[in-house]
């Protein structure tokens, strides 16, 4: 019945552990679900995923840069006229003109008639002009009532009427994520009148390749943009060099040419996923989007639900591993899980799938730190348990060594080892206790036990137990000892010497003398925690122990009996006298040799 209780208790312990593991794993999964980790995740994902790649040199930027501003002055005063001139130069040869000219400048209102006419007159079938919309959240009517729309068009600008009639348009909206970083591209949006407005990048890419495969977009029309170039990495030619004829027009033949501002004062730059330190101009962003569309470099985000389920399962497995592995080895599974996930994220990204980079490594790291803390608490409790268990038996330095060695001595069970066992008893204690008051008997007994305990611990013995006025101790366990048999002999000699001094003291105080009988034996015994999980004692059992007890029981006062095994072990280091007529010990054949320990050399 008791065994059954222990099984149930063991099961309950593991049920509690499983519940704790599940709850903690669920808590870390919820942290990810609640987007608490997103700021770190987005930043690290950008660093891992967004890397420059080699692309075809079919995209060229004509920049309105500082050099042009220095010559022509204020951008607003000349850009329409000079952009019109640049388009005419690029398209002057029908056979050698660019495949596409995309102007990343919004001309929604009219200016001076002559400049507007020049701009309208420069249009060709390969030109794409800019349009843009403003978005906000609000309520819209859907025929049955009003519904909330978080992506509502509140304003739309397109080229002025004359320019609109002779050109095609694509929107240039660049919409940042919540952390201010530009990671996505709005492929198209629908106007209230039913028209669909493609992005300038999509329009230009389709004019370049009408059989283009399009990326999968979310409900608002966005797709994740894999940048191919960092800021300033795309080839950029100053509009001034084009106007001055420094670049042959056939250089642009068959290419996609983007015209747009690339000067710091023109307020058209963004922090992008590929570089958080340096801003990218809007025209470079368009070039990156065109490049990704032409390359078919599309990435699909894996469902958050799937990722959270995977995270939860990995946390459960990691919890079991961290709990079962020693702290000094748990670093290895942490390393494999955390960096293995990052490597897998990179591999899957190359295959077109986007995972949250930080969810698993950060959660696993929190779990790892937690497991280290739990192991530290458990280790401290174990140390305290070892200390509390063995401080009653052995010297403090042995307790420390047990802790340092992570000894298994607290487990129920024992091991066979060679030990020296000592028993000591007061001769005539029963008679003395009948003559003296109980308080005096206890006082004498305490002085005696203090003396015996000090002698045992002085020589690193294990004080096993008190049985009335008898004391048992042994050497050689729980840790192996050098010269353990000699230590037992020295302890016995100190006891004998101390007994004489204590006897003189007690005779003066109480009129009673004391004499000790001591027995020492050497041999194999089973040593360990013997009992039940609820009540166990660290002790030694076996014939070696029984023989030592019988040696002590037969030893007269002021005498130390040792077995021949002890005498042989200490041969040449002690003086011992064999008994001429040794008493017969229970369980031993006739001729069992007993000696008196007389002196240690």
Please tell me about this protein's structure.
The chain is α/β, with parallel strands linked by helices. It is 45% helix and 24% strand. The strands form six sheets. Strands 16, 17, 18, 19, 20, 21, 22 and 23 form an eight-stranded mixed β-sheet that branches. Strands 1, 2, 3, 4, 5, 10 and 11 form a seven-stranded mixed β-sheet that branches.
In short:
With 601 residues, the protein is α/β, with parallel strands linked by helices. Strand 7 (188-190) and strand 8 (196-198) form a beta hairpin.
Tally of strands: 23
| Average predicted local confidence, pLDDT | 87
Uncertain spans: 1-11
Residues in helix, %: 40-55%
Distance between the termini: 57 Å
Tally of helical segments: 18
Q: What form results from the Cα inertia axes?
A: rod-shaped
Any idea what the radius of gyration is?
46 Å
Largest sheet: 8 strands, mixed
Estimated structural class: alpha/beta
Strand content: 15-25%
List keywords for this structure.
about 600 residues, alpha/beta, eight-stranded mixed sheet, about 45% helix, about 25% strand, rod-shaped, disordered N terminus
Question: What secondary-structure arrangement, pairings included, does this model have?
Answer:
Elements: H1 2-33, H2 38-49, E1 59-64, H3 66-72, H4 75-90, E2 100-103, H5 113-121, E3 127-141, E4 146-157, H6 161-165, E5 168-171, E6 184-186, E7 188-190, E8 196-198, H7 200-208, E9 222-224, E10 236-238, H8 239-243, E11 256-261, E12 269-272, E13 275-281, H9 282-295, E14 300-301, H10 304-324, H11 327-350, E15 353-354, H12 359-390, H13 396-404, E16 413-426, H14 429-435, H15 438-458, E17 462-467, E18 470-475, H16 484-510, E19 516-531, E20 536-541, H17 543-554, E21 559-563, H18 564-569, E22 574-578, E23 594-600
Parallel strand pairs: 1-10, 1-11, 2-3, 2-11, 3-5, 14-15, 19-21
Antiparallel strand pairs: 3-4, 6-9, 7-8, 12-13, 16-18, 16-19, 17-18, 19-20, 21-23, 22-23
């Amino acid at each position: 019945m008791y065994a059954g209780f222990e099984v149930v208790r063991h099961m309950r312990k593991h049920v509690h552990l499983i519940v704790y593991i599940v709850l903690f794993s669920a808590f870390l999964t919820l942290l990810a679900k609640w987007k608490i980790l997103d700021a770190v995740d987005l930043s690290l994902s950008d660093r891992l995923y967004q890397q420059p790649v080699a692309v075809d040199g079919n995209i060229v930027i004509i920049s309105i840069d500082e050099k042009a501003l220095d010559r022509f002055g204020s951008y607003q005063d000349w850009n329409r006229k000079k952009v019109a001139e640049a388009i005419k130069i690029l398209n002057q040869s029908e056979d050698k003109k660019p495949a596409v000219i995309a102007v990343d400048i919004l001309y929604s209102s009219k200016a001076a008639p002559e400049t507007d006419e020049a701009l309208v007159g420069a249009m060709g079938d390969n030109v794409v002009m800019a349009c843009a919309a403003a978005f906000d959240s609000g309520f819209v009517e859907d025929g049955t009532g009003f519904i909330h729309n978080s992506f509502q068009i509140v304003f739309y600008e397109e080229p002025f009427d004359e320019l609109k009639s002779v050109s095609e348009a694509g929107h240039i909206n660049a919409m940042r994520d919540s952390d201010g970083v530009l990671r996505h591209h709005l492929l198209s949006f629908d106007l209230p009148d039913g028209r669909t407005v493609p992005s300038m990048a999509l329009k230009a890419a389709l004019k370049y390749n009408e059989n283009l495969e399009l990326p999968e977009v979310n409900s608002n029309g966005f797709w994740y943009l894999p940048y191919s170039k960092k800021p300033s990495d795309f080839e950029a030619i100053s509009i001034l060099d084009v106007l001055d004829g420094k670049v042959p027009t056939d250089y642009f033949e068959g290419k996609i040419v983007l015209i747009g501002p690339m000067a710091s004062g023109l307020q058209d730059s963004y922090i992008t996923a590929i570089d958080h330190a340096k801003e990218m101009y809007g025209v470079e962003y368009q070039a990156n989007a065109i490049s990704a569309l032409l390359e078919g470099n599309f990435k699909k985000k894996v469902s958050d639900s799937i990722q959270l389920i995977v995270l939860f399962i990995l946390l459960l497995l990691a919890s079991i591993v961290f709990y079962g592995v020693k702290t000094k080895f748990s670093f290895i599974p942490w390393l494999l899980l955390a960096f293995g996930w990052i490597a897998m994220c990179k591999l899957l990204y190359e295959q077109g799938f986007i995972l949250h980079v930080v969810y698993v490594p950060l959660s696993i790291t929190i779990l790892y730190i937690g497991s280290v803390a739990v192991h530290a608490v458990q280790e401290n409790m174990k140390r305290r348990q070892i200390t509390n268990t063995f401080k009653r038996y052995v010297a403090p330095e042995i307790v420390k060594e047990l802790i340092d060695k992570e000894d298994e001595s607290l487990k129920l069970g024992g091991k066979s080892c060679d030990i020296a066992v000592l028993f000591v008893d007061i001769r005539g204690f029963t008679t003395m206790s009948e003559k003296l008051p109980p308080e005096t008997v206890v006082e004498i007994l305490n002085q005696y036990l203090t003396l015996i305990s000090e002698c045992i611990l002085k020589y690193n013995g294990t004080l096993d137990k008190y049985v009335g006025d008898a004391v048992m101790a042994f050497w050689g366990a729980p840790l192996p000892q050098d010269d353990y048999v000699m230590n037992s002999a020295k302890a016995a000699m100190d006891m004998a010497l101390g007994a004489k001094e204590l006897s003189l003291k007690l005779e003066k105080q109480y009129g009673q003398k004391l004499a000790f009988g001591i027995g020492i034996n050497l041999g194999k015994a089973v040593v360990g925690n013997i009992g039940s999980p609820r009540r166990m004692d660290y002790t030694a059992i076996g014939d070696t122990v029984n023989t030592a007890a019988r040696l002590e029981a037969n030893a007269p006062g002021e005498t130390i009996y040792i077995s021949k095994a002890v005498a042989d072990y200490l041969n040449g280091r002690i003086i011992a006298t064999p008994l001429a007529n040794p008493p017969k010990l229970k369980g031993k054949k006739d001729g069992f040799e007993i000696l008196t320990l007389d002196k240690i050399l």
